[in-house]
Amino acid sequence: MKTVDYLIVGVGSAGGVLLQRLARAGFSVVGLEAGPFWNTEKDWVSDEAGSHKLYWEDPRVTGGSDPLAFGANNSGKGVGGGSVHWAAFTPRFHPSDFEVYTRDGLGADWPISYHDIKPYYEQLEREMPVAGPAYFPWGHPHGYSYGPHPMGGVGNALIKGCTAMGIPVSIGGPVAILSGSFGDRPHCIYRGFCIQGCKVGAKASTLITHVPDALASGAEIRPHCMASRIELGSGGRVTGVHYFDRDGESHFQPAKAVIVAAYAIETPRLLLNSGLANSSGTLGRYLMAQAGNVIMGRFDQLVRMYKAPPAHALTEEFYETNPKNDFVRGFAIQTVGPLPVAFAKQMQSAKKAWGWGLRREMMDYNHWAAFGALGEILPWADNRVTLSDETDQFGLRVAHVSFNLHDNDKKLIKAATQKTMEVMHAAGATEVVQEARYAHLVGAARMGEDPATSVVDKFGRTHDVDNLFVCDGSILPTQGSANPGLTIQALAARTADYLICQGERIFSSARRDMSEPRMRRDLAPPATWGKGVPRLT
Amino acid sequence: MATSLEIEITNHIREGKFQRSLALLTAATSVVSGLEVAYEHYRGSYSRRVMYTPVILSGLLSIAGVAAFFSRRAAQSVLRWTSVVTLADAGLGFYFHVRGIHRKPGGWRFPMTNMVMGPPIFAPLLFGTSAYLGLIASYLQREEGNTPTSRELLSAEQDIREGKFQQQVAVVAGISALLSGFEAYYSHYKNNFRYKMQWSPVVIAPLLAAACFASVKSRRAASTLLPAAAALASADAAVGFYYHARGVLRRPGGSKHLVYNIIYGPPIFAPLLLGAAGMLGFLASLLRRRRA
Amino acid sequence: MSEYNNSDPSLRPVNPETGEPFPPTDQPGYYPGFRTLSQSPYWDAATRNVVTLRVTDPPERRFFTAYEWKFWETVFSHLIPQTDRTPERQIPLIPPLDARLYANRTDGYRYETMPQDREAYKIGIEAINNESAARFGGEFLDLGHWQQEKVLQAIHDGRPEASPEIWKSMSVSRFWELIMHDAMKAYYGHPWAWDEVGFGGPAYPRAYMRLENGEPEPWEVREKRHEWRAPDLSVSDEVEPLHHLHTEATQRAHISPLRKKP
Q: Which residues of B touch A (CB under 8 A)?
């Protein structure tokens, strides 16, 4: 095969953005994607049970004292990756998230600050675009150029509860869901099936926001191709990636540089299977999920929570460290909108419901509203991805994930749950229950200045190999209580600008230029401009 | 028993001598329409640049209306042409709204769902009402008389100038009533007619329209039915305005999230549209009819 | 098809006013007359095909043996009882499970404390049969309805009395979660269950216009509640809220309080 400039493993949230930027800048780029290239009209169904193909269902082993669930809980498969099935909450991280260790003595500091990523937040918020209130007060206050969404029953409950308790609430966003049309993309029709894939095209996924322009700019995507090993050449640089195609045949694609964007599990798994980038011993470590407890409240009047996007309102009032607490960092409270199967599982967990008890609870489905507490679990060395001895259908060693809550995490989760239950009561719920679970997954190939304690530098370049990059959720050193999707795409755009500015040096030079790249707004997908309102801030 | 002030006003209207008042009314209604379209288009996120045009034009029209109050020249030029451009914009808006509904998933296969959830189909035409007022005003005489004409007038223009355009206003009022009534119908349908009062504009608007169209044929209807129907519609509009304002404040978060609740609550100025139709009907009843 | 085809009235829910069991109905729940399938002309073709097939053509038995199929059908009829439904309106719970195991399709992760799903469903039979023998002296399928329910309740509670060596290799709570998930996915993924709970069903390209205050769409129906008691022979009409436990591990590992012996 012909050598390409960049080979991107995983065309998901980050992979899609990288593919588009690099192709538009004129590089030859190939994206390998283990899953399908979706035809949204034919492949996706407006149905819970029929949507399992969107998720990574290949085997993983999960353990530790607080084992995580994967699959439909957080792991996507197919072009667009997690951005196909996300609920599309897209808040930014706060300035404090980038210096948690300095401020609170726990967690880690990032090698970049909010200031470095801010222009990319603004840029991606235009490209998706993100809809939200004109003034979002938390973190670094800012506004959105697409207006807020109408509320469903759950949003109204959150507003009622927060207003009663004097808690400010962000209404109608920030979500990467259209509240007005965007070129050919119609705006949301409020059908509540976000997590099953947006057939309307209103919810942003890189499948529709970046991949089309990538292909138009000459990028190539190879779906149903599972990367198996990154090849290291004799000169200490990677030379390409081995992968299995749809028929199980192995191929080798040579490349001048490789970017791994395969998700917080598959990225460390691939690098560990390839024996690369782990001189620090931190590859696979500092994995983070957020606490994602779902608090459900029963109301006397009907709610019908299935009718709006699950994500439509939130509050970050408790995000920052409060010295009065016995823990550091905090949590957010968000709306969620479980459909019947998901809700049944929640009743089974939260109330040990079964048999006639379950039938009875479920007949009241329309009386329930649900909030999600999103709590910041800190990065710990013993939360990690390793290789188990089991192998998958390709003969590759399967990922083993070990997850364990620490003291700060448990106290934080307790406070988050209790506060969210208070809000649900304040909203008028007559009965409030809670299902403990987790949400999102980042870390395991974290960025840092020190090669002894991190895997990649502030641009995603691995400390060990000059032309091997990681750019997806696995590079986050901390996670805040914000959904990571926007930050992942913003970091991808920033890494792309760096690679584009560095040009040929990436492919040949051993010297690393660490200067900040010029921001390349001109490389945004052309449909981005000419829409929306001027932002207030 | 009519007071002498009422008689004087009525005579002025009969004779087409109310340019300044109508210009001011144009300005006022234009501000209200402008606010309404500004926040409704914010709901649509100004996804196309053209959505700014009615907002900008409302501003210009209200300035033109105020200028016309002070200056006869402004009334005959600036107000006239701003009104014409705004009317054209209203037509353009109607086209875009119809197209917008067509482009929603399912398009016209789900007429009620997509009219309810899509761009309000007749809103742009109703938005044009204030521009219609401005256009009429530009042909009227001023209250104090002394309104020379710069050129020979067409007979239609002369009719307006002399207050002899009752039937024309009646038709416009009738159409406006039907459009407002339809808007009220599907908007209240979205709400599932939770409150019985929500039927009132749906019932009253066709009554007003019937009175308007009857007035085209019959002078009697114009002087009896029409003012009665207009009064009923205006009263209903005031009641509706009260309920909408109350509805906005009763939303979750109430006045603490006032801007959001105005945007997504019952459209605060919408009932006044039926009131505008009522007002046009009332105006029609005071005018004289066209020369034979 | 389940054998609990309403031949035994003592297995049906009871009207608390009269004390009489309700006759079986086409549609339990509080939304009489509501039919999501009536909306299928307004769905997209891909969704319509998938959902219609689920109703008209549940998969045939390919993975389980005839005994295993019958075993799990009986177990699942306790996990999600359907004696309030007419025989023609029983929602098939085992066909989707059989199809999934046949394809060896999983959720994409396996707890360390669990075997693979196919294995779990094999040794689960042994564990349940041992529990039945220990408590009531017979195999599960030979027990009476109430006895079967008590056996399953023991697993639900996290208090099995038999086969400690099986439960060493397979977490009780995760096993319970596994079988409950399969039952719930089959039941609440079915249009007849959507009708029962008043869920709007697929919604593309026709979606919703009444988002607030629980207002029904023009084609949805208002709720009409009625009181009902679980059948006298059942023990599953109970819930145990766990909101005082804040982490996933503590909730899953929770063992229900000891029950008084009957």
A: 42-49, 100, 103-105, 117, 251-254, 256-257, 259-260, 263-264
Quick check: C3 pLDDT over 90?
no
Instruction: Give the count of domains, chain A.
Output: 1
What residue numbers bound the domain in which A501 lies? Answer: 4-523
The string of pLDDT tens digits covering residues A339-389 is: 999 999 999 999 999 999 999 999 999 999 999 999 999 999 999 999 999
| Domain edge (last residue) among B128, B163, B198 | B163
- The Cα C123–Cα A120 span in angstroms is 53
First-residue to last-residue Cα distance in chain A = 49
**A338 in a domain, yes or no?**
yes
**Which of A159, A160, A181 has the CB atom closest to B47's CB atom?**
A181
In the predicted model, is pLDDT for residue C262 greater than 70?
no
If asked whether residues B138 and B241 sit together in one domain, one would say no
pLDDT tens digit sequence for A6-65: 999 999 999 999 999 999 999 999 999 999 999 999 999 999 999 999 999 999 999 999
- Yes or no: say if A178 and A146 are a contact pair by the CB < 8 Å rule: yes
Q: How many Å apart are CA B50 and CA B29, to the nearest integer?
A: 22
DSSP state of C69: H
**B211 in a structural domain:** yes
Does residue B110 share a domain with residue B12?
A: yes
| Residue C62 near residue C99, CB atoms below 8 Å | yes
Window from A98-107, A261-270, A318-327, B147-156 with minimum mean pLDDT: B147-156
Same domain, B73 and B169: no
**How far apart, in whole angstroms, are the C-alpha atoms of residue C190 and residue C195?**
9
Asked if B140 and B11 sit in the same domain, the reply is yes
The reported pLDDT for the residue numbered B162 is 84
When pLDDT is averaged across residues C23-28 and rounded to a whole number, the result is 95
Find the mean pLDDT for residues A282-297.
Answer: 98
Nearest chain A alpha carbon to C234: A356
How much is the average pLDDT of C24-52?
Answer: 96
Q: Does residue B186 fall inside a structural domain?
A: yes
Indicate the residue of C206, C208, C210 with minimum beta-carbon distance to B106.
Answer: C206
Residues B6 and B38 in one domain: yes
- The widest CA-to-CA distance across chain A, in whole angstroms, is 70
Same domain assignment for residues B7 and B92: yes
CB contact under 8 A, B104 and A533: no
Q: What are the pLDDT digits (tens) for B172-189? A: 999 999 999 999 999 999
Burial class (CB in 10 A: 0-12, 13-18, 19+), B133: buried
Task: Spell A176-205 as b/e; 16+ CB within 10 A means b.
Answer: bbbbbbbeebbbbbbbbbbbbbbbbbbbbb
Question: Of B163, B194, B228, which residue sits at a domain end?
Answer: B163
Claim to verify: residue B176 and residue B244 sit in the same structural domain = yes
Pick left, alpha or beta for residue B189 (phi over 0 → left; psi -120 to 50 → alpha; otherwise beta). alpha
Evaluate whether residue B150 is within a structural domain: no
Interface test with A, best of B47, B101, B102, B258 (most A CBs within 10 A): B47
Domain with B71 in it:
1-144+157-163
Question: Higher pLDDT residue, A320 or B15?
Answer: A320
Tell whether B252 is within 8 A of chain C (Cβ). no
Q: Is the pLDDT of residue C261 over 80?
A: no
The Cα A398–Cα A383 span in angstroms is 17
> Which pTM value belongs to this model?
0.95
CATH of the domain at A39: 3.50.50.60
Q: For residues A76 and A69, what is the distance between their CA atoms, to the nearest angstrom?
A: 13
Of C30, C50, C249, the CB nearest to A47: C50
